[in-house]
Amino acid sequence: MGIYELILRRRTIRQFQPVPVPRSVLEKIVNAGRLAPSAGNLQPLEFVAVDDDEVRAAIFPCLRWAAYISPRGDPMPGQEPAAYIICLVNLRVREKGYEHDVGAAMENMTLAAWEEGIGSCWLISVDRKKVAEILAIPDEYRVDSVLALGYPAENPVAEDFRGSVKYWKDEAGVLHVPKRSLKDILHFNRFG
Ligand SMILES: Cc1cc2nc3c(=O)[nH]c(=O)nc-3n(C[C@H](O)[C@H](O)[C@H](O)COP(=O)(O)O)c2cc1C
């Protein structure tokens, strides 16, 4: 699949198969994050990959899923993420203004995962203090985002925006994700 097709087809996944993600694949995904653009090439980001069962179980309660449809968007028992990649910011390298770097790295990782057949959910509704404790993160690092990963056990669909940005689940449990249209968001040469 080409990169454009990959981008079109990627959806956030919150239901996962109980199948481990190989270490080599986790390394490949983080490598894609490592090589993302970085303002000033300062590269303030580091990552913790979690695939151990006990650590996974400790991280799971620190996360909040799909606020618009809670609790229907939570991973169901047995469909929790198979792995996590926690994105850390070294505040000694960059104290503020790192958010663009995080975005670029997270999107690179999301797409690299999708190419491997692995779904992901980027989470910022995270109990950062608890995650930092569990992972023994030093004080000079900020826990920014969590990427939850695993082979998909759902097949969400993007649909045209019809007045609400709220994603929703139909009777069959399929997640629908409204997206604003190109004509509504693209301006050529001047606004409007
Ligand atoms: C910065 C950011 C933070 C997000 N935080 C969460 C979160 O805490 N919990 C969650 O379930 N989804 C989270 N998401 C996923 C969004 O809900 C999802 O991207 C959005 O509904 C659009 O769906 P799509 O990714 O399939 O296009 C986050 C996405 C982004 C970009």
Task: Give the topology, please.
Blueprint: H1 3-9, H2 23-34, E1 45-50, H3 53-59, E2 83-90, H4 99-115, E3 119-123, H5 128-134, E4 141-150, E5 157-160, E6 168-169, E7 175-179, H6 182-185
Parallel strand pairs: 5-7
Antiparallel strand pairs: 1-2, 2-4, 3-4, 6-7
The structure holds flavin mononucleotide.
Residues 11-12, 14, 64-66, 121-125, 156, 167, 177 line the site of flavin mononucleotide (FMN).
Give an account of the 3D structure:
- The protein is α+β, with helices and mostly antiparallel strands and 192 residues long.
- It has 6 helices and 7 strands, in the order ααβαβαβαββββα.
- The strands form 2 sheets. Strands 1-2-4-3 form a 4-stranded antiparallel sheet, with helices on both faces. Strands 5-7-6 form a 3-stranded mixed sheet, with no helix packed on it.
- The longest helix is centred in the middle third of the chain and has 17 residues, at 99-115.
- The chain starts with a helix and ends in a 7-residue tail after the last helix.
- The mean pLDDT is 98.
- Flavin mononucleotide binds at residues 11-12, 14, 64-66, 121-125, 156, 167, 177.
